[in-house]
Design brief:
about 120 residues; elongated; mainly beta
Length: about 120
């Protein structure tokens, strides 16, 4: 089993910044990719940013130039630095880890519990 511990959410004014952290722990053989998703009742869950084991990144168009995803492979931690926040960024943010398990020989997706980001106008 893999556990994802998220932190860094909170309330911030428009134009401000936040940094989200997600640390993976447990039975990890190989993390193929990690990413951040956000969820609202209106839009459901959508990809915000992801980073593969090879370092390739992908961003939603709405956050390009404002958000940056990074990783610390030694600690299996992924970060999302969010700048120039807008009210439309308000959502629950969820960390995702795609893991290859050598025990079960399966590729599995794990999700964090989520952390709330609220941007006030």
């Amino acid at each position: 089993q893999v556990q994802l511990a998220e932190s860094g959410g909170g309330l911030v004014q428009a134009g401000g910044s936040l940094r989200l952290s997600c640390a993976a722990s447990g039975s990890i053989s190989s993390i193929l990719a990690m990413g951040w998703y956000r969820q609202t009742p209106e839009k459901g869950r959508e990809l915000v940013a992801s980073i593969t084991s090879g370092g390739s990144t992908n961003y939603a168009d709405s956050v390009k130039g404002r958000f940056t995803i990074s990783r610390d492979s030694a600690t299996n931690t992924v970060y999302l630095s969010m700048n120039s926040l807008k009210s439309e960024d308000t959502a629950g943010y969820y960390c995702n880890a795609r893991v290859f398990s050598a025990v079960s020989f399966k590729v599995l997706d794990y999700w964090g519990q989520g952390t709330q980001v609220t941007v006030s106008s």
